[in-house]
């Protein structure tokens, strides 16, 4: 069994957050809570950890990995964003949305969608995720924790421990954070297109 840390969902213990960040920096794969559901996360530059995520989720090469950012100031480094898109994203973040955008050269090619050269980006509204990102100082490469042949994310830390205790380096128990994945928005299309309706409201995207 690898590490299992219980972290307060509203007031994360700094010492435990530092442990989680150390595991990420050392190439570890973690399970952590967000404002929509639990997610798998690793360091942006770690190819082996990314491959472990692909193995756990059994996803193909067309999967859109997500860079989870502390705030929108990081997004310009990793994605090409015009003013209109930025204003829309600013109005919806932090929150349960993933935005599909054109990747910049700062994004490793293996993280990009091979056909469209895109990357998913999001800014979560969850104290544990935000604390990790603040201490880490860069985005987490991430994917929603949906097991193969399942339609909904895993939400119970003890169940996650039974499923993945030997396959990940750290599971963070931040309580029940929900069953809904993020709402995924393709920002490459005008007007933006909803690719997956999740926890985030889609009312702002309605044109009628």
Characterise this structure.
There is one protein chain. By secondary structure, the protein is an alpha/beta fold. It has one domain (3-200): DHBP synthase (Alpha-Beta Complex). Helices cover 26% and strands 23% of the residues. It contains six helices and eleven strands. It has helices at residues 14-25, 47-57, 75-78, 83-92, 127-136, 157-164; strands at residues 3-6, 30-33, 38-43, 66-68, 79-80, 97-103, 118-122, 140-144, 170-173, 183-186, 193-196. Strands 1, 2, 3, 4, 5, 6, 7, 8, 9, 10 and 11 form an eleven-stranded mixed β-sheet that branches. A hairpin with a 6-residue loop joins β10 (183-186) and β11 (193-196). The longest helix has 12 residues, at 14-25. The radius of gyration is 16 Å and the shape is globular.
Report a brief summary of the structure.
The protein has 208 residues and is of the alpha/beta class. The chain contains six helices and eleven strands. α1 crosses α5 (127-136).
Q: Which key features would you list for this structure?
A:
single chain, 208 residues, alpha/beta, DHBP synthase, eleven-stranded mixed beta sheet, 11 strands
